[in-house]
Amino acid sequence: MIDLRKVEKSFSHDLAELWTVTYEEAYKEEHTAENIHAYCAENYTVDAAMDALTNPDIVCKVAFDNHAPVGFYLIKHSECPVPLDGGSSELKQIYILADQYGSGVGKLLFDDALCCVQEAGRSWIWLSVSDRNLRAQSFYRKLGFSSLGEGPVFEIGSDRLTSTIMAREI
Hints:
Number of domains: 1
CATH superfamily: Gcn5-related N-acetyltransferase (GNAT)
Distance between the termini: 27 Å
Order of helices and strands: EHHHEEEHEHEEEE
């Protein structure tokens, strides 16, 4: 049975590890090992996890299966760069372990993230997704997201990826 829990700063080491493993698994076919390692070493540190877990505008929930973390999401209560009719929150990240793909854990995390955004009084959830990440784009379209326009450029080591901003009204 999957148990979802909001995690606090005491989970920062575990979050940094989960960030790295899920990112590596999600992108091992898209980027070189060197680029993935460089990105994770810069962005998924214990300090970065501590910063996220102590930021009052960020909510992190982790999915546990038999007490082992198998996925997570981060919601940041911040407005979309594309104007929307109502307040919005960003789905910064939602990742699960590769052996959980197709298990329903991603959908469970997403449904909980929607509740988190609703509880914050926001009308929209938005995200930026790499234009090369077709699996994620398909997942978000199935969940009712629409493309709004060009997003930021993601730098993964020496790779530069364009992205698209997607949003869904709640």
